[in-house]
């Protein structure tokens, strides 16, 4: 393990916390029952475990347990939210507002709806990655049914002003959805105070298992209608059929429980590491911080580097650290990151970018080593360029 690169890609996914794994294990073997089985103890005990996780998640976002719909992850939750609202409210209107820096799991369902005749307004962002609330104000129309703005960006960590957006939506009777895949457990979330109607969650970005997520669906003031996107046994109040994945649900609950408990101290630790890394790197000329300097996830540092080739930079970093250039979800394509180009960057700066996703298990020593190696890599690439 020790000669593998230092893991700094915690926005792509995180390892499962030992406490989470321990909580999950009995639910694969001993407690394997179907939580829908109402006639025996095998069902009762897993039903109780699911209930407990539902309560933990609801408490973490100030919702009620009935408002938590388990899904396979945030991608499915986003699809259910966006397509589900579009289908349920299309007679009221067919206009949706979202943002240029959203995850593809929000942008692509919107693009799909466009092919069905829905109109999508994609708001630009400012240089710091935040939306301009005046522009949002102007984007509302009488036929707007949904606004979808993420809580925390997966590439540049920027935190959007959810409470202000929620207030604007509620005042106009427009449903507000937020993709909080990167935010759950990392920043305080309150669906009442922030007036959020739908919120997508996932476990594997917060030291829980992959393949489990949830959609918060508001039940009162207002009661949000959703057309199910998967039909079957009528699980999850009919909104998402399919046998509940008990071990993953238990792990999701435990992961969020731990994350909420350690949130304040962990954020302090991550902020220190991030600031140290930036302190090291910003000594060099031509290095830019992407995204708002403080209105961001504690563990996110995203930089663009002038005067180097993006692919060469990544090759140089790879032996020492596992980092990402742009979004992991688009790293198989060669297009520059849509998030970085939305900030107004040139193609070169968008390509020559590095996302450091610092997480729970990173240490100060690792960050020192990473900082030194990034600096020496950039310096040698720039020198080679001068010689060539
Ligand atoms: C990871 C991520 C997703 C996708 O979540 P899955 O649970 O992997 O489907 C969606 N939105 C954002 C912002 C993410 O970071």
From TrEMBL:
<dbReference type="InterPro" id="IPR015422">
    <property type="entry name" value="PyrdxlP-dep_Trfase_small"/>
</dbReference>
<comment type="similarity">
    <text>Belongs to the class-V pyridoxal-phosphate-dependent aminotransferase family. NifS/IscS subfamily.</text>
</comment>
<keyword id="KW-0408">Iron</keyword>
<keyword id="KW-0479">Metal-binding</keyword>
<keyword id="KW-0808">Transferase</keyword>
<dbReference type="Pfam" id="PF00266">
    <property type="entry name" value="Aminotran_5"/>
</dbReference>
<keyword id="KW-0001">2Fe-2S</keyword>
<dbReference type="InterPro" id="IPR015421">
    <property type="entry name" value="PyrdxlP-dep_Trfase_major"/>
</dbReference>
<dbReference type="InterPro" id="IPR015424">
    <property type="entry name" value="PyrdxlP-dep_Trfase"/>
</dbReference>
<dbReference type="GO" id="GO:0046872">
    <property type="term" value="F:metal ion binding"/>
</dbReference>
<protein>
    <recommendedName>
        <fullName>cysteine desulfurase</fullName>
        <ecNumber>2.8.1.7</ecNumber>
    </recommendedName>
</protein>
<dbReference type="InterPro" id="IPR000192">
    <property type="entry name" value="Aminotrans_V_dom"/>
</dbReference>
<dbReference type="InterPro" id="IPR016454">
    <property type="entry name" value="Cysteine_dSase"/>
</dbReference>
<dbReference type="InterPro" id="IPR020578">
    <property type="entry name" value="Aminotrans_V_PyrdxlP_BS"/>
</dbReference>
<dbReference type="GO" id="GO:0031071">
    <property type="term" value="F:cysteine desulfurase activity"/>
</dbReference>
<keyword id="KW-0411">Iron-sulfur</keyword>
<keyword id="KW-0663">Pyridoxal phosphate</keyword>
<feature type="domain" description="Aminotransferase class V">
    <location>
        <begin position="6"/>
        <end position="370"/>
    </location>
</feature>
<dbReference type="GO" id="GO:0051537">
    <property type="term" value="F:2 iron, 2 sulfur cluster binding"/>
</dbReference>
């Amino acid at each position: 393990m020790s000669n593998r690169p230092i893991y700094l890609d915690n926005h792509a996914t995180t390892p499962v916390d030992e406490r989470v794994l321990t909580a999950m294990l009995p639910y694969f073997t001993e407690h394997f029952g179907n939580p829908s089985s109402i006639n025996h103890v095998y069902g009762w005990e897993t039903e109780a475990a699911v209930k407990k996780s539902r309560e933990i998640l609801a408490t973490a976002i100030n919702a009620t347990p009935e408002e938590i719909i388990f899904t396979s992850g945030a991608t499915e939750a986003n699809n259910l939210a966006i397509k589900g609202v579009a289908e349920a409210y299309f007679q009221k209107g067919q206009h949706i507002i979202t943002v240029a820096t959203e995850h593809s799991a929000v942008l692509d369902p919107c693009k799909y709806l466009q092919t069905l005749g829905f109109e999508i307004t994609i708001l630009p962002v400012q240089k710091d990655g935040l939306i301009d609330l005046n522009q949002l104000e102007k984007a509302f129309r009488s036929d707007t049914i949904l606004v979808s703005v993420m809580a925390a960006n997966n590439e540049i960590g920027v935190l959007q002003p959810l409470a202000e957006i929620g207030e604007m939506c509620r005042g106009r009777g427009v449903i507000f959805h937020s993709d909080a895949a990167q935010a759950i457990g990392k920043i305080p979330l309150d669906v009442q105070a922030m007036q959020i109607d739908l919120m997508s969650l996932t476990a594997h970005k917060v030291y829980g298992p992959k393949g489990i997520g949830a959609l918060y669906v508001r039940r009162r003031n207002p009661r949000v209608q959703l057309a199910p996107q998967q039909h079957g046994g009528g699980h999850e109040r009919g909104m998402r059929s399919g046998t509940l994945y008990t071990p993953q649900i238990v792990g999701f609950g435990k992961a969020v429980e731990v994350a909420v408990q350690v949130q304040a101290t962990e954020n302090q630790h991550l902020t220190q590491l991030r600031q140290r890394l930036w302190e090291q790197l910003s000594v060099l000329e031509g290095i830019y911080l992407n995204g708002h300097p403080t209105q961001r996830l504690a563990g996110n540092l995203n930089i663009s580097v002038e005067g180097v080739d993006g692919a060469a930079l990544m090759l140089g970093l790879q032996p020492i650290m596992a980092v990402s250039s742009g979004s992991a979800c688009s790293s198989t394509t060669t297009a520059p990151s849509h998030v970085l180009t939305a900030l107004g960057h040139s193609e070169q700066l968008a390509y020559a970018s590095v996302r450091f996703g610092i997480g729970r298990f990173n240490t100060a020593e690792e960050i020192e080593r990473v900082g030194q190696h990034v600096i020496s890599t950039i310096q040698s690439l720039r020198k080679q360029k001068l010689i060539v």
